[in-house]
Amino acid sequence: MRSKLPSRPRLAALLAVPLLAVAVLAGAGLAANLDAGTRAVRVRGLGPFDAALTALVHELQRERGLSQPGADRAALRGAREAVDRAAVAYRYAAVRLDVSDRDRRLHRRLDEGLAALAALDRRRAAVDRDPAGAGGRGATLGYTGTIGDLLAVNGEIGLREAGEDAGLLRAVAASAAFSRAKELADRERLAAAQASSLGGLDGAQRLRLASIAGRQAMLLDQFNGLAAAGQRRLAAGVVSGPQALQAARLREAALGDGGDGGVPDLAAWSAATAARVQGMRTAEVGLVGEVGRLAGQAESAADRRAALYGAALLLALLLGPLLWLLAPRSSAPRPAAATAGGPAAAAGAGEPGPAGAPRGRAAA
Questions:
Q1: How far apart are CA 181 and CA 191, in angstroms?
Q2: How far apart, in Å, are the Cα atoms of 315 and each of 17, 31, 150, 304?
Q3: Entry pTM
Q4: What are the φ and ψ backbone dihedral angles of 227, each rounded to 5 degrees?
Q5: pLDDT tens-digit profile of 243-278?
Q6: CA–CA gap between residue 215 and residue 331 (Å, rounded)
């Protein structure tokens, strides 16, 4: 007769591969979602640092504008004091930002941002020595370089901390693009104010302004392509609203000197760009908070998925031993020829006696 496997070995053979596959997949999913949750926590933890850096950049932009020739010196002193306070808050936030143990490169980038602030004293001294000459005119390039370095540090840290989470990567990249576009808008504001005071733009200034406008439009297109719905809603007024359209229209008129022979309204252009930059600064602060909110949502979603994967892993690990214990223990099969009289009786009952009768009856 064909032999059969006992129940428990057969159960082990049937369940080992599926349960092992479930355990492996659940373990991989659990690890991935725990990592995603940790990344989201890190991005959310960047909030105080981002807020401090945004405030510092705003104050640096204000000091840059007041460092131009002819600016109010009392207002410049107030702007410098505001920058110093914002720099202290930024340094404190940078020290509290724990990235050194995870990524040495990010730690170096933070040091570079702090080093950029160290150059402020030299830049201010140059402005004070010659406020109406090269010191004041050169301040624009120096401040622009410092602001660019700070924005680069912020963007790189955010992107590295976001890891491979597509939603967080897009949100962080969109916020970084908007910050760079706002910096270009502030440089346009300075150009508009200068053109309004001088009565026009020369050829080099037009080329520079056209380049700024083109890069600004490219960054805002990038923002619109990457931003989440909440981010686009926060920036809608300064990206595509009436305020933005008016500033763009006046800029085009200034670049073309009136286009159709009219005189461009440089004062209106200066006022429109100043109002738009102020609106972009308000939106930028909101975008910092929105990135933190999106990171919180990503963290909650990752925690829920991790809990599900953890439950699946636990079930896979417990189900095999449980089914093994509940399975019946099978006994060895009895011989088919066995009867109540034992093997000998079974063998004797089958032998014929004299005259074809069974042996048992003949003996009787």
A1: 15
A2: 15, 16, 49, 17
A3: 0.78
A4: -70, 145
A5: 889 999 999 988 885 545 456 789 999 999 999 999
A6: 82
